[in-house]
Specification:
4 helices; mainly alpha; 104 residues
């Protein structure tokens, strides 16, 4: 979320994008390993399929909205809005997880 705010600074936007891709790659591998260790194999496929479906659902919704905001406003403002939304959702996620709610 914080790196998305750096996309507004043109002179370091390529560096910010590189950081974002690096962190995304690390989190992807770490999350897959965590899921494989935490979830029994008979439930793992369902959870991974649901995760993939939700990613596709949000991608189908958010990409056109992001493009519309970029066309109406600017790309920098669209990244600011996206970063703010991601930051808010991250805070909500931390609050929910800190209450010890288990899914499985």
């Amino acid at each position: 979320a914080f790196v998305l705010f750096l996309f507004n600074l043109i002179h370091i936007s390529i560096f910010a994008f590189t950081i974002l891709c690096f962190v995304d790659s690390l989190l992807y591998v770490s999350l897959r390993d965590y899921i494989n260790k935490l979830i029994p194999s008979e439930k793992r496929a369902t959870i991974l399929s649901f995760e993939s479906m939700m990613f596709s659902f949000f991608m189908i919704l958010l990409f056109p909205i992001f493009g519309l905001v970029s066309d109406i406003l600017t790309m920098q403002i669209a990244f600011l809005i996206l970063g703010a939304i991601l930051l808010i959702l991250s805070v909500i996620n931390v609050k929910v997880l800190s209450k010890g709610i288990t899914i499985v």
